[in-house]
Amino acid sequence: MKRRLFIAINLPGDIRRRLAKKTAGWHDLPIRWTSENNLHLTLAFLGYVDDREIPALIGRLEEGLDQTGGFDLIFDEITPAPDRNNPKMIWLVGPASRELGNLHEKLGKAVGFLVRDHKEFRPHITLGKVKRKLLESNDQILETAGKFSATCPVYSIDLMSSELSETGSEYTIMESFNLE
User: Fold this and answer.
1) pTM of the predicted model, to two decimals?
2) Is CATH 3.30.300.30 what the domain over 2-178 is classified as, yes or no?
């Protein structure tokens, strides 16, 4: 069997609850909101991976993440993205992070994906996807923009599986990797 896998930083419950409360005020907008339990920062999408390959993948990740320390991620804004003039999503974003860039580079080496040349990685979390067909004007979406301050301690990352259903994606943690 093949599973749809990705590597993520899952948000702590207090940040997920704050975001869910914030987005609840915008449920009349033409946006499909990410469920509270699914809020995460994707570090790498691995695609469909055969179950027989997963133990070796876990081994490569354990080895590649050895001596990787924890850090804090800062988030400071909710914004329409990737283009404010033609928004497709609503993101929670923060300033570029050297620690996140280093982690992303280590993951790339461990699982064999191409990593950008720079070491800084600007975190973003998809809070919702704009339903373009129902959108009357971009002004509706621009009302979501604003400050949102959160510090997310990153002491582990997760190998996740994603199952698509009619009600949305369901995510399952397959393996957690502690950052020392």
Assistant:
1) 0.90
2) no
